[in-house]
Design a protein that fits this description.
Low-confidence stretches: 390-394
Distance between the termini: 25 Å
Structural class: alpha/beta
Strand content: 5-15%
Shape: elongated
Oligomer: single chain
Radius of gyration: 25 Å
CATH topology of the largest domain: Rossmann fold
Number of helices: 18
């Protein structure tokens, strides 16, 4: 079972915001015992974000299940001693300190290695350890801008736009989790301190891989195409007489079927549209002709007509509509905390790793909820303060 994959693994989450906490949560979903250290007095930065439900931030809730929370005052000598004890007992440490903070706290990678010579340390930052990373703490949107990702997102002639989901934070968390899993595997045969560095800018450049490759080959930077694609036409959202829909054609047979379905067979023989390369060159002309035809019927008509001929089409749903799709239920995408005995909690999205939807063992913790228990068990021994693995009825 997935929830037993890392049972017994001791993870110390020193991170805040989204990337680090999400990586730690994924390990928690797989059975790890995760202690989240939060800095007094306010804890993780996302705790203050809106919207709030019953006094808890939905952003924090989404990134922090299967963890215990201990609140420490990083300005107090006793708290730093306790933090060092936790570091010394952990198998994995995840941190995302702003530039210069780790060194001021005596928690640089070298310091952590001195405390725990067999640990896997994963440092997550926006721009790494170079001049840019040392000078500027970063967030998802900032890295989207600096990396060039915003330059071709949005509609032609309009302002640069941010990709709404925190794609760089979330993807960096997944890279971090994979690198931690690989390091743990290597430590089975050759235990040693391993320092992993994961950066949002690395993620951004990699997510743009085919745009980067095209630019390196042609010297032509990608352009804003709205919902369109640089390598295929027609491939975008079209407005119908009522509503809109997404159409994706990526091969010659599909284009022929599209033209036949629309009663526009003459487009197949039009020299401007005879190949994919030619359609890309004349995308505006083709889009204008198709848009005129699609305006003659409602979206529901085109969705049925195009799908019946094996073309890839779908409605442009809002989030409410998307969550009501049958496939969301079929895929069992939500964890129900009440069904497992919890006395509080919202439905939580299961991790795609958690195929059986059994990964929920702890509700996202209240600020400092487990401080007394953890610090009492930590004592002076420096041993990991083990916690119950069953779902807490909090």
């Amino acid at each position: 079972m997935l929830t037993e994959t890392y049972t017994g693994l001791k993870v110390l989450d020193l991170s805040t915001n989204i990337a680090g906490p999400f990586a730690a949560m994924l390990l928690g979903d797989m059975g790890a015992d995760v202690i989240k250290v939060e800095r007094s007095p306010s804890g993780d930065d996302t705790r203050a974000l809106s919207p709030q439900v019953d006094g808890e931030s939905t952003v924090f809730i989404a990134m922090n299940r299967n963890k215990r929370s201990v609140l420490l005052d990083f300005k107090a000598a006793e708290s730093i001693i306790q933090l060092r004890q936790l570091i010394g007992a952990a198998d994995v440490i995840i941190e995302s300190f702003p530039p210069g903070v780790a060194a001021r706290l005596g928690l640089s990678p070298a310091d952590i290695q001195g405390l725990n010579g067999d640990a896997v340390l994963c440092s997550i930052s926006a721009f790494g350890d170079g001049p840019l990373g040392s000078a500027m703490p970063g967030y998802d949107a900032l890295v989207q801008a600096v990396s060039g990702m915003m330059s071709f997102s949005g509609n032609p002639g309009e302002s640069d736009v941010r990709i709404a989901p925190s794609v760089l934070d979330m993807s960096t968390a997944m890279w971090s989790c994979m690198s931690i899993m690989a390091a743990l595997r290597n430590n089975e045969s050759s235990p040693k301190f391993r320092h992993l560095s994961q950066c949002l800018v690395d993620t951004a450049i990699n997510l743009m891989s085919h745009q980067v490759q095209s630019y390196l080959a042609t010297g032509i930077p990608p352009q804003k195409l709205g919902s369109g694609a640089p390598s295929a036409v027609p491939y975008r959202v079209y407005k119908a007489g009522k509503g809109s829909f997404m159409l994706a054609t990526a091969s010659e047979p599909q284009f022929v079927r599209l033209c036949s379905t629309l009663g526009m067979e003459q487009l197949v023989d039009d020299p401007r549209f005879s190949t994919m390369a030619r359609r890309i060159e004349h995308r505006d002309a083709l889009d204008a002709l198709l848009q005129q035809r699609f305006a003659e019927q409602d979206a529901s008509y085109w969705l049925a007509a195009l799908a019946s001929n094996g073309l890839s089409v779908g409605p442009v749903n809002d989030l409410q509509e998307a969550l009501q799709l049958d496939v969301v239920q079929e895929r069992n995408l939500f964890l129900d905390p009440l069904a497992t005995g919890a006395q509080r909690g919202q439905p939580l999205l299961r991790s795609p790793l958690d195929h059986q939807a059994q990964g929920l063992r702890r509700q996202p913790p209240r600020l400092g909820e487990h401080s007394a228990d953890i610090l009492a068990k930590l004592g002076k021994s420096g041993e990991w303060p083990l916690g119950e693995i069953s779902l807490e009825n909090k």
